[in-house]
Amino acid sequence: MKDKERIKTLRSILNYIKPHWLRLMVSVTMALFTVVLGLYLPILIGRAVDLIGIIHQEGSKKEFLTLLSVMAGVAGAGALTQWILNLTNNRIVFHVVRDIRKQAFDKVAELPFSYLDGHSHGDVLSRIITDVDQFADGLLIGFTQAFTGIITIAGTVLFMLRVNVAVTAVVVFLTPLSLFTANFIAKRTFGMFQLQSEARGEQTALVNEMIGNQKVVQAFGQEEEVEKQFDEINERLGKHSLRAIFYSSLTNPVTRFVNNLVYAGVGLAGALYTLSGGLTVGQLTIFLSYANQYTKPFNEISEVIAELQNALACASRVLELIEAEPEAADGMETVQEEAADGVKTAQGEAADRTETVQGEAANGTEIVQAKAAVGNVELERVYFAYRHGQKLIEDLSLCVRVGQRVAIVGPTGCGKTTVINLLMRFYDVNSGRIMLEGRDIRMLTRHSLRSAYGMVLQETWLRNGTIWDNITLGKKDATKEEVIAAAKSSRAHGFIKRLPEGYETVIGEDGGSLSQGEKQLLCIARVMINLPPMLILDEATSSIDTRTEMRIQEAFNLMMEGRTSFIVAHRLSTVRHADVILVMKNGAIIEQGEHEELMAMKGFYWEMYRSQLPVSNRLS
Amino acid sequence: MKSLLVYLKEYKKESLLGPLFKLLEASFELMVPLVVAAVVDQGIKNDDPHFIITRCLLLAALGMIGLLCSVSAQFFAAKAAVGFATGLRKALFSHIQGLSFADSDKVGTATLITRMTGDVNQVQTGVNHVLRLFLRSPFIVFGAMVMAFTVDVRAAFIFVVLIPVLTVVVFAVILTGIPLFRKIQAGLDRVMRLTRENLTGVRVIRAFRREEEEKRLFQERADELMKMQLTAGRITGLLNPFSMVIVNIAIIILLSTGASQVAAGTLTLGAVIALVNYMSQILVELVKLANLIITITKSFASGSRIEAVFAIRNDSLAGGGWLPPDTEWNEGQQDNKPEYHEPEYHKPEYHKPKYHIQFIDVTFRYPGAGEAVLTDINFTVNKGDTIGIIGGTGAGKSSLIHLLPRFYEAEKGAIMINDQDIRTMPVDSLRSRIGIVMQKAILFKGTIRDNLLWGKANATEEELWEALRIAQAEEFVSSKEGQMEAKVEQEGRNYSGGQRQRLSIARALVRRPDILIMDDSTSALDYLTEAKLRTAVREACSDTTVLIISQRASSVMHTDKILVLDEGKIVGTGTHQELLKACPVYKEIYETQFESST
Predict the structure, then answer these.
(1) Among A488, A552, B177, B358, which is least packed, fewest CB within 10 Å?
(2) Residue A447 has what pLDDT?
(3) Assessment of whether the complete model's pTM goes beyond 0.80
(4) φ and ψ at B500, to 5 degrees?
């Protein structure tokens, strides 16, 4: 990471910590107390040792007892401050984690699809989950250790200087030795760790490939061959791991050895001073125990730096997500009526984020209720491409009246969903415009635009929850009658009834145990319960058995009754009865018209139709 | 975890020497307070600088010996741990490779992969730490007590009381903490699941305008998680303060009793210092032990997850892979004229086999599944014929052909190839006769040649090109840079779907199989290429029996015989024309695909 970025990341982290400044102050104070009290104890012990030496002297006994009670007090106070320190740090860290996660998650709802489609889900997920965790751990460990380490070093040096300068000098000059050796080892082992992770990566890739496709491996009887490959990498990994683990584990013994040397040095200098009367026996014990405490932060320093660096790297990954460009600002109007107060500004790119929030708040108040009158869609000279320079939709114009059916056909999956993406405003057109009821959809709030469409996609997404939860996704307060009615008209009631817990059956992540067809029926029920004036339907391809397919078809026909519908079509019957057919190839619309017109053109559609339109079905 | 320790067996020496050297190091460490005590009691008291110098040199020497011991300990521990993990990985991989389809379906490949990687690493760390530290900490704790006895018996009793108290505190905190950590993990999983759902379902969530609702839900889960983390933190945060108080109380007691003993002349000052030092050492070690226990718990969890994988026994193919066990299979004749016949379907003499493939009353269900996927399947196939198998998803088409290479075992009935029960054939030789092209076309990292050689290891250059020609892949392979040596990335992802399909067809053809199975495997090819492929296969491999699986009538209507499957049963057999007349299910499929109705 460059310094500039690092500073930017640090500044953002500070922003998250800011609301906790009071706790932070408490934490710093408590850390200070904990360390100082901890350092004070050896002094008290040292003095006690000295008093024991002269215990028979007048007054010593009394002083000794007071000293012991002070010790008890200091130990108790130290324990208390340490406990408060732990609690405060936990509070800060876990709150910051929650806040960052929340922000990152909220961001997911605002991100443009270009971001979401361009990043793998695993990547975004690991930013929100793993990175935030590692950042928190690193922050907690790094911060606590760095801070207490510095105080410890400063504190011990000060205390020691007060007692004896010469012996302090021995400690101060010898300890950096361990720092150097630790650093030396860390540098030397870096390369070994790299070799190790390379071998590990190679092995994971092989395991992924071979176990993931075990059926093919077994079908071709290649188990032994693959095992040979695996063993070769495995041996290599073992060799590199041994080196990396062994050499890196030398840090501890070596620094401990340096500490022992320091300890011996302090013992020597201290004891000789004691002989000359420059030091008491008690003070010698203080020095010896400081010699141990003082070196600890030095030993941990490389660990702390690594910890903090990792935390920073993780933080910047999360922050990159949080600070990603959000979707273009929302419009202000709703589909049906002019907004009551007559705000009609086309927000466009100029609008900033606060206005987006306003827009969202505005559409929360009143959403257009489905009215059959809505359903006039016009595309005017629309141009669109996902990437600059890639030609996709060019100069597409289309006029759809209420109740008309638009079929989209073509060989591959990619282009057909593009049209859906534009209609739903998952993506914005590059130029031209899409009008709904005579208004540019960019002037509408996304919510009100989307509430005008019911969408059933082929990739059926269901959430982990009950059947009921899934059907009521679009209408939270639905009554039992409504839910059952929706399930019945979507032909899903039958199979739901047969499930062990009926509507209360919990289905796993991504539909779990349901068949593809059943999942699609549920998705239809979800739309059916609150049927909007327009539909976007993705007809099932080959993955569903004929019977279920027919049930789905029935449900589709029921829904489409009198509604403007856009259908990604695979079935000739649907295509033939459509009012407009869009023929797509390689992502672009190449022909457009009614069935008869297109057949007369003897173009791509005609060719596809002659081969019984199977091309689309084969690529699912 | 216990059963995994066999992999440590080879490293018996290292796993003994590691801890042993660690104990040696600890013993030297325990001597330090005694040396310091001597410096105080003899060196300082007797004003003997020479004594002091020699003792301090002794301290340095102890440090040096300690260093040597601990370096050896680290080495042996690392060697044992890494060797253990390497052996474990090897065994695990080989075990997973040998799992039957039924078993690996049950566990799921994603799980198998994480066990193979993440869990093995965790166990390796665990073993390493245990060898290095697990003995050391208790040894120092009790060693300090023993040393205290050598210093002074009366004072040593303080240790006898202190150690159990500290142990109870440390373990109480840790043991309350562990279940809390597990809860936190579950909470984190919930947060993760919700996040993943919101990513995979982003279109639906936005289409249903659920954004605010989802945010609220996330807030709820994140709060829940935070509360659990705070609770756990409150408890584990007690560990250090508690032990600090306890140890200091013990030191105070030590000092006060020590004072009166010194006054009475029964104890020296140096001895008191030594006792205090032992006390501090105990504190340090207990905290280390606590951290170690957390690492060990994690490793144990990983260990038992790995054990669970090993526990999956390959039931059906056990014992070399063919039944019955008393079969005398003659290896030399396995390729054409098998002489052994399983008694049940015994044929008195060997003739030209009547059928190439025959299914007799086959019923099959996936292990653990309630309903049978296939019921009472009966059909025959003549050598050299092309057979179409059609039906909807879940009709059992893929299950049916997966029985043939014994990926799964039939529950009832028998499957015969050349009139011989496939259960009497060694799995290897059975599979070597079958070329299978799966639904999902997968290639493996290497070159195109490497991939094709999977079909037949000793194939000649001509054979490879011939296979490519039949699979309609010759053209694009020869236009590639390096041709057959062109690189293939993992899973063949640098090739298009159509190219992958053609290459995997070629791979199956290289071995010139008796039986070629194509499971919906031409979906990415255009109509023309598919037709060319079909013709080429028929021309070049007239002896090969071809099974084509499809959901589409257009792909099977030209075959010699079509089997229609519906809900696990054969509901029609015959040619396209026969079935149109006689089989309503086939008619229905055909008609929904070739319009009419609606």
Answers:
(1) A488
(2) 83
(3) no
(4) -60, -45
